[in-house]
Amino acid sequence: MTQTQHKKINNNRINAIDFIKNSTIFSNARYEWIKPLIINILEDNFVDSDVKKLINGLLSKKVQEGKDKKEKTDQKGKPKIKTPTDEQQDYELTIKKIVRIDSILNVGLLNIDEPLELKDGLNVFYGKNGAGKTSIYLGLCKTLGKDKTVYCNISAEEDDVSYCKITYEDNNGEQYVSEWSSGEEVLESKVMIFDSSISNYIVEEDQVNQFKMAHLKTEYFSFLYDLYQQIEDEMQTESSTLNTELQTIEELLSEKVLFIFNEEFSKDNIKKASFTQQETQQLSQLERRIKVLEKDNTEAVLRNIKNALEEVESVLLVFGESEEQYNEEAGENEFVWQLFFDKSYFEKVNVQIKKYNDTKKAFENSGKDKISSLIPPDWINKETWENFISSSIDFLNSLTEEESRKYLEETCAYCHQPLQTKEAKVLIKVYQELHEEHKEKLNQEAQALREISDLMTDCINEIKDISNKNKKIEAEFENIGKEGQIGYDFESVVSVFQKYKKLIDKAQKIDINESDIEKIQAFWDIYHNLSTEFKDAIDKLSKDILDKTNKIKEINEKANPLRQKKALYENKNNILKYLKLQKHISIMEEKLSDISAFRQTTSSLKTAFAQEVTLKEFKKNLQVEYKKLGFSPPQTWNIKPSTRYGVNKRVYSIGDRKLADIFSEGERKLHALSDFFAQCKLDNYKGVFIFDDPVNSLDEDNIEIVAERISELAESGNQVIVFTHNLYFLNSIISTQKEKITKVERSHNQISLIKEIRIGETQELKDRLKKITSKMQELSSKTEEEIDEYDLRNVYDLMSGYLEDYVEKVYFKNVISRYRPNIRMQTLEDLKDLDTSVIDKVLRLYERTSRRGSRHSQPAEVKKPKYPELVDDIGQLKQDFMYSKHE
Q: What is the C-alpha to C-alpha distance for residues 796 and 852, in angstroms, rounded to an integer?
């Protein structure tokens, strides 16, 4: 922020309102639309309805003046305060005081199931280290929504949860309940807490400057943020409504006037849209002509003829093939069907039959010379003998080399009997060599004949099953100008193919008969001619459809402008509404983007104000707190503002060194307390303060000063809750003759509270003795074997604590109280009748209780306590050291 953007800050204080009014918010034209509401905020004239009126104005909507006027008188002030049902993360519970702690269960070893009432002013919880004060503190913090870690009782069941409940009072005197359970989050309350972790954080980390100083009116920055949020929420709600309406009307228009989404139509053009009676008649005539053309069923006829053509061609495909040829007359390529089975085809078949027979003969002749001496002469040319030898050779080829050798040399491959002669072995070997030499060639020729035979079979099957196809073909005769049925002697064609197949299977030459070829050709011509007729019909129908399509297209081209004009006229209101919604959505999007820029600008203003004004005020208050706590920081140190990512912080340092590098442990504590008190004072905070051991690391003099400062908080109308183990601090912060405290004690597996005791009174002795009696009653119902060692030690712990208090409160008459800054001189006279013989008895009994308890560390060889000894020791305690004897 430069000096040209706002008034220079001098000794005369400037508040946040003046700072904002002299900023770019009031000079930048971008803010013009929101400026009236900002002025209302700064002048305390804002009402919630102003936001709705602003949005209505942007969208040129009408507003209800009467209703808004009434709201103005009722709601005058700041933007509405958020409640927990709005954005919970930005909300803090307002607590004036904590009325009572209703319950704390399963937090550490602590279980408080009876309400613990808290006073308006000072409340003190005292106990030694490890007594369980922190469990109460942490349970209280979690119920107030503070970020603390709580551990459940280690002896608890796995499914047990920690639970805390308090009753508090707000600034209006209304009482409410706040509860917390494991795994849940509680809204954070505006309660000031101070403990060691907070103390360390204040010293070690840079602190965020978030002060709420009433005289500087810093809260108006927050009011602006709330205004922006309120406007943004209202705009987003409005945008959502507008988008829903737009989507609905888009769906409607897409059905009726889809073309408007692809063309630009101005509002004026739509308003002027009309459709005359003459145009209505003209469009009606065109629509009728289109309907007449569309009623024509040429497309359906075309589909049926194409299906019939497919059946015809499926027949042709079995008996011939289609080849692409160039048609000079048409000037394009076309497919022409050719018959397979003409005279030349069967002549080729005879050639193949001859090749097979020649190959077979060559095989037979080549072996005669080699085997003629091994078999009878009349066997050589017999087919039976050749089959016998071939089967044997095939069997031998299927065997391994070793097995094959056995059959060649020892056993007959056909009858599996031992080979009787040398000639038999030679015969098998010779025939195998001949077979391997000619077999592959012979098999190739035989396979060729089998393929021709299979083709004959396909033709025979196709003709036998042709009647079903003929029915589908004949059904379309009427559409191509034919009558009747396909008349032909199909059996005569079947007999031709059957006769030729039989000869092929026997590898015998076919005697090609002209009559047979003519029968096949006549059969082929029937379906070939049908194919031509169906194609001609398809070409004609396709041309007719194209002509019809072109005609419909031509009429539609004349009708479409009239249709669009009519649609625009009939949907005029919806189209105007659509254009209006689009404009309104665009306005909302533009203004929503402005809101983001406004937040950024306001954040920069707040940072600049904090750097120039609030931090200056904080420094003054910090110096006051330093003085109250008697702390003198180095004169050369500095507090500087540092802003990153929109967050303004204050940085303490001497040169480039931080406080944690400079101060001693005690100095850190005093600085942290001063910083804490200075922030509270700047924020003008009144309410609940909670301190957990705030004087760690401090000497006696500083403890007294801190005690005095905390007492000042209680005296100025705040509720102050203090947890401490420091007796000196305890005696410094309370008047032992007047004020009562809550004492926290821990036995082995539980924490107990002694409520509302006054230091120096015998009430604590009464409570301890009552607990001892109760424990002994529990133990008396058990056998010695059932009694746990730790139960005995717990009772001894109570006894040793009783004796300590007895010596202080009864024997020494509270003349010398532990950690008091002086002796109570007014009670010295009570010591005149002091019986010194009691001292030896107290020491002896105290030594036994201490050794047998668990409050103090013990040598390993100390024997375990026993129940009979405990009974005797309690008897002595009640006989010699009863508090009532000395009252």
A: 6
**Which helix (H) or strand (E) element contains residue 675?**
helix 665-682
Could you tell me which residues are beta bridge partners of residue 639? 652
Amino acid residing at 566? K
- Give me the residues of the chain with pLDDT under 50, please: 1-12, 63-91, 819, 822, 886-887
Q: Closest Cα to residue 164, out of 180, 144, 148?
A: 180
Upper half-sphere CA count for residue 266 (Cβ side, 13 Å): 3
pLDDT, position 499: 93
Q: Which amino acid is at 114?
A: E
The pLDDT score that the predictor gives to residue 454 is 93
Which residues are within 8 A (CB) of 292 and not within 5 positions of it... i.e. 6 or more apart? none
Provide CB contacts within 8 A for 545, sequence distance 6+. Answer: 298, 299, 302
Cβ contacts of residue 666 below 8 Å, gap of 6+?
A: 697, 698, 699, 702
For residue 46, the 8-state DSSP code is: B
What is the full DSSP assignment across 610-668?
Answer: IIIIIHHHHHHHHHHHHHHTT----TT-EEEEEEETTEEEEEEEETTEEHHHHS-HHHH
What residues have CB less than 8 Å from 619, skipping those under 6 apart?
Answer: 639
Distance of CA 855 to the CA centre of its chain: 51
Radius of gyration (Cα) for the chain, nearest Å? 56
One-letter amino acid for residue 554 of the chain: E
Give the DSSP H/E element, type plus range, for residue 207.
Answer: strand 207-208
Sorted by sequence, the CB contacts under 8 Å of residue 1 that are 6+ apart come out as 23, 604, 605, 608, 612
Q: Which long-range contacts (CB under 8 A, 24 or more apart) does 449-452 make?
A: 449/352, 449/353, 449/356, 449/504, 449/505, 449/507, 452/349, 452/352, 452/504
Closest to 15 (Cα-Cα) out of 518, 516, 613: 613
Distance CA(735)–CA(760), nearest Å, equals 11
Of 186, 119, 106, the closest CA to residue 722 belongs to 119
CB 618 within 8 A of CB 682: yes
Integer CA distances (angstroms), 197 to 95, 205, 569, 702, in order: 23, 11, 75, 20
Q: What pLDDT is attached to residue 367? A: 54
β-pair type (97-107, 110-112)? antiparallel
What is the DSSP secondary structure assignment for residue 371, as one 8-state letter? H
Rounded-to-integer distance, Cα 793 and Cα 232, Å: 66
Question: How many Cα atoms are found within 13 Å in the side-chain-facing hemisphere of 222?
Answer: 15
Q: What are the φ/ψ torsions at residue 756 (nearest 5 degrees)?
A: 50, 55
User: pLDDT tens digits, residue range 91-144?
Assistant: 456 799 999 999 888 887 778 878 889 989 999 998 887 777 888 898 899 899
Residue 359's SS3 state is: helix
Is the pTM above the cut of 0.70?
A: no
Tokens of residue 14, six digits: 């400037």
pLDDT of residue 705: 92
Separation of alpha carbons 361 and 358, rounded Å: 5
Element (H, E) at 559: helix 514-570
10 Å CB burial of residue 376 (0-12, 13-18, 19+) is: exposed
Determine the pLDDT at residue 11: 41
User: Which residues make Cβ contacts (< 8 Å) with residue 325, sequence separation at least 6?
Assistant: 333, 334, 335, 336
- What is the C-alpha to C-alpha distance for residues 13 and 18, in angstroms, rounded to an integer? 10
| Cα dist from 159 to 138, 143, 476, whole Å | 20, 20, 83
Query: Residue 821 class from Cβ within 10 Å (0-12 exposed, 13-18 middle, 19+ buried)?
Result: exposed
Per-residue pLDDT, 569 = 84
Encoding tokens for residue 534? 């169906």
> Can you read off the two tokens belonging to residue 241?
């409504």
For 754, the enclosing helix (H) or strand (E) is strand 751-758
